[in-house]
Amino acid sequence: MRDAVVVEAVRSPIGRGRASGSLAPVHPIDLLAHSISAAVERSGVDPALIDDVIAGCVTQSGEQAANIARWATLAAGLPESVPGTTVDRQCGSSQQAVHFAAQGVIAGAYDMVLACGVESMGRVPMGSATLPGDSHGTRINARYPDGLISQGISAELIGARRGLGRAEMDEFALASHQRAAAAARDGLFAPEIAPVKVTGPDGSVVEFSADEGIRPASSTQALAGLRPAFYDEATAARFPEIGWNVTAGNASQISDGSAALLITTSERARELGLRPLARLHSFAVVGDDPFLMLRGVIPATRRVLERSGLSLDDIDLFEVNEAFAAVVLDWRAEIGAPADKVNARGGAIALGHPLGASGARIMTTLVHALHQTGGRFGLQTMCEAGGLANATIIERL
């Protein structure tokens, strides 16, 4: 039976998604091309052997429109014969790209695929590709007559219903920064990062090589001083149970970045002299309540564990995307995973959340972390707008 293995996993450093961010001068096509090129060059494979490039990207408008996977493939210098396609599973887009790539390899439709993702939130603002107003159509409006809510309000409701307070969320956020800072200080991210050379407005070239969202000097006092990010009077009247605890400090950062994983079979890897890093063991994707849309990670985790035949105790490291502290805390309480195994190197609160790149970025970190710690199994899951969630289990090789 064919399998799917990761033979290379690389990412850009994550930049702040604003005009002053280090990656702001880099066009998103070039940013994705950077990770594609790095994956191919580090592996040493002939790029003509790549059957497809599958890229995640959420805001497919402006500079990220018109199938960015194809243009980034060409920008990376790959042969014109290598195709590319762009997928949107919201925040889990590039995790879904990994799923599609692995499933295609296992099925025999592909022999080698690049699964990747990109988001330049500083150049293509979040929300610029969303529906105008409440334009979900008459049938959605009829099915959900009370109206849907934003992700921020969903996080507030999840926190309120779980009984999470502001202090608990802020403590989680601080731990994310502390863990990420320690990992960066100890050089643990270095093997997975391909530095980006950025040309400034004066023509000077600077090498950007470290995630710039990590705040080692953060404190609970500083976090406690931040205002609620989503408060408004109408929503407060509609949901009086909300404690308004979600802030910019205990939610993911707006970021720029890209990541890429080269996926093939064990047999093909042996033929080409490639070293498999991890086997893509099990997959799950679920739909859940689009109102409390961020809780999909809970059934997704349960489903992928059931499909894998593994138990919670078999998993050495968990990666749960830190869209909001409330999401991970709620997941942890429901699933029962040990806190020290969850986002052990920090998450999106500290490292950033470049939407379409995050799934591939997290998997890249997970692959390298398993090798550095000697763990065998890792589980990754991400909440996604609309009540969706992906979950993946990988096995270190």
UniProtKB/TrEMBL annotation:
GO molecular function: acyltransferase activity, transferring groups other than amino-acyl groups
UniProt keyword Cell membrane, yes or no: no
Chain ranges of the Thiolase N-terminal domain: 5-266
SUPFAM superfamilies: Thiolase-like
Keyword Transferase in record: yes
Pfam families reported in the protein's UniProt record: Thiolase_C (PF02803), Thiolase_N (PF00108)
Active site feature: C91 (acyl-thioester intermediate), H353 (proton acceptor), C383 (proton acceptor)
Identification of the protein by name: Acetyl-CoA acetyltransferase
Record keywords, A-Z: Acyltransferase, Transferase
Domain Thiolase C-terminal: 275-396
UniProt record similarity statement: Belongs to the thiolase-like superfamily. Thiolase family.
